[in-house]
Specification:
Keywords: Plasmid. By secondary structure, the protein is of the alpha+beta class. It is built from six helices and 13 strands. The strands form three sheets. The chain has a six-stranded mixed beta sheet. Strands 1, 4, 10, 11 and 12 form a five-stranded mixed beta sheet that branches. The longest helix has 25 residues, at 87-111.
Length: 283
């Protein structure tokens, strides 16, 4: 599983969040009124906020160099008794660990739950208690297949408020839904349309379909990209793997691989979201 949501910039990334980031929300009622001589406030201004609070995570792995002395990697360790982990294997482990973390972050962003070790609340959990979402914008889901995917996508589009139709409006869907949509289009004879398109270039009723590998099957989320946020301390922390040879520290033959990072997600305007297959207990 690839970490497409972050690597492709599918949602807004807020770096340099050490503790908390406040997402300010401003609301007004009808702002334009008939003119008069006196100053008369034309609207009330309501400020509310949502909190983006990253949680801290780590990766701690340990290997013993002894495991490599008797196999084909032995020569690359050097001939001294004070040998090193084979560089090719160290490079592989660095890329392996970083890729595994990226895949886990992708799942956490959409389907994570902070109650589980190594996870934070993803959008599916957060939107399950979205008090700002109108009940009509919570579309009941079903098990998607090639015969109903077009109709179910249509249900989501039907509930999008007119004011939300903008250039960056997207329907975020899991890979399974995307594959079903392609199969449905193939059955209708339209598959040639998609042969030279990336997964982020497919449209449905004028709304872009964005494929997010971490989303749960039979779910969809429709909103604008700038309404969904990922917060972290440093983005580079998610790609930095430290390799520590413990021989000079404690005399052992162990090599440790370490990562540390922080992460969380949050939405700004709950009323600007249409969900599918996510039961909202606050409605």
């Amino acid at each position: 599983m690839s970490g497409d949501t972050l690597s492709k910039g599918l949602i807004e990334i807020k770096p340099n969040v050490k503790y908390k980031q406040v997402l300010k929300r401003l609301a007004t009622n009808d702002i334009l009124k008939n003119a008069g001589c006196d100053f008369d406030p034309t609207s009330t201004v309501t400020l509310t906020e949502r909190i983006l609070e990253p949680e801290y995570f780590k990766v701690n792995l340990q290997l013993c160099k002894e495991d490599f002395r008797s196999d084909w990697e032995a020569e690359s360790m050097g001939y001294s008794a004070h040998d090193e982990l084979p560089k090719t294997f160290a490079d592989y482990m660095i890329s392996y660990v970083a890729a595994k973390v990226a895949a886990k972050m992708e799942t956490n962003i959409w389907a994570g739950a902070t109650a589980n070790n190594g996870e934070f609340d993803g959008f599916e959990v957060l939107l399950a208690s979205n008090a700002d979402q109108p009940a009509s914008q919570e579309v009941a889901g079903t098990t998607l297949d090639a015969s109903n995917i077009v109709a179910e996508l249509g249900k989501v589009v039907d509930e999008i408020p007119n004011a939300l139709f903008k250039d960056d409006l997207c329907i975020f869907i899991p890979i399974s839904a995307y594959r079903l949509y392609l199969r449905a289009q193939a059955a209708l004879g339209f598959i040639d349309r998609f042969n030279n398109q990336d997964m982020g270039d497919v449209m449905f009723d004028g709304v872009k379909l964005v494929v997010c590998p971490g989303m749960s099957d039979n779910t969809m989320i429709c909103t604008t990209k700038d309404n969904l946020y990922f917060g972290t301390g440093l983005v580079s922390d998610h790609n930095q793997v430290k390799v520590i040879d413990m021989e000079d520290i404690d005399g052992s033959d162990n090599v440790r691989f370490i990562m540390k990072m922080s992460a969380a997600v949050q939405y700004a305007n709950g009323e600007d979201i249409v969900t599918y297959g996510i039961t909202n207990s606050a409605n």
